[in-house]
Model the fold of this input.
Amino acid sequence: MSELREECGVFGIYSQETQDVASTTYYGLFALQHRGQESCGIVVNDEGLFRYDKDGGLVNDVFTKPVLKKLGMGQMAIGHDRYSTTGNNDRDNAQPIVVKHHKGKMAVAHNGNIVNSFELRTQLELEGCIFHTTSDTEVIAYMITKERIKTHSIEKALNNAMSKIEGAYSLVIMSPQKILACRDPYGFRPLCYGQRSDGAYVVASETCALDAVGAEYIRDVEPGEIVVFSKNGVKSIKDHCGTKPHKICIFEYLYFARPDSIIEGKSVHRAREIAGELLAEQFPVDADIVVGVPDSGIDAAIGYAHKSGIPYGMGFIKNKYIGRTFIAPGQKNREDKVRIKLNVIKGTVEGKRVVLVDDSIVRGTTITRIIDLVRKAGAKEVHVMSSAPAFTDACYYGVDVDTKEHLIACQCDYDMKKIAEKVGADSVGYLDVNSLNEIIGNEPGEGFCSACFGTGYPTQVPTGQKDRFEEKINGAETEDEEEDYELYLRD
Ligand code: AMP
Done:
């Protein structure tokens, strides 16, 4: 794997009145674009009739005026921004997934990764189910529809399916008459809802999307909870609440979420600022100026400056019209993009000892390029601070962390001197993993997941599809069968 990828954003609107739900969803997805830039989709529900469109590209590109016009008016809609973490990148895997089943139809938008997807998929396939995608969201959709056949409502079906699905899932589901918002019992991924002055309810991955569509935040969906929006009002089902330890992803606060979002009552901006303050305590340096790498390094840089007493300076200008660095395919292209994306404000760093704060150093490619830019602009010293601890392990809950051999901290045996040498810095500091709890004001290790920083997995770890297929390949009875399995893996 050569690229790091990020996760997804989900959105939904429920209204009693017919209105332009497609445009509202468009604005919601636009506000959540930072969570996924590979593909997006919107499904509109007009009196039970589902109209939808989804494709590869940014919200702005996919949902042109004619496309939105075609989606038309309705009473409900759901939408999704995707950056694949399981399944391939093609259009087939774009969400929401729309399914027709024995008792009706349903659209599903999912953020997260489930860890028993392969087992469930195998079991379903052996029962005769046919999959159209390689994404775990289709497995979730099947598990719900399978239960739907035996139950009288979509929420009961979802409630039953939740006992069988393990891992990270924040879901927005639309049936002909309802919108359902649901979070897995660990609460790995965020999800919240609010209401607009016209009475419409809005569900979103982050509060910044509620703000964008003029909805007043009501509350977060609780880990394990299903919230049902229907003509009967808002209903909460809490059978799965409290059945697992609370494990919101700490990387949401450090990198993924937008700083203007509030997750579970805690400001993302403030969490990053505290991370910067802690870095100043853990890695004090004699310096003249603190600069943050835009966008997600800035909040922590402000925290570092505030705590250390070293002035904060605006070190970079970012070209706003470029996507996140990682969209660029191929290493060469990625390096060019750093230069196109960022330029140094020479006067801020020239002749100075600079503290350079970024949200994370993963493979070290980005920071190496940035240090080079800062040095070329005349900085005397460059001390790099990462407000995320060093990555040590893969994430199975929706964040694509590169394999160990590509992680710079692993490559350098977690030796800060070696890392500094490799990236061309005078010194390097990563936030201490043991102080992560402080950024959200929790007890140590309580209430959040930091498995990618080496603190252990809260669930079973999935067996990769590749390993399973290798078993099958080895057990194949004919050469033809073996080849079929091998070709399947190319998908
Ligand atoms: P690098 O050290 O070159 O791998 O890049 C690190 C930069 O990538 C960070 O400063 C973040 O802005 C960004 N980043 C960190 N984690 C991820 C991720 N899982 N997906 C996409 N981008 C990421």
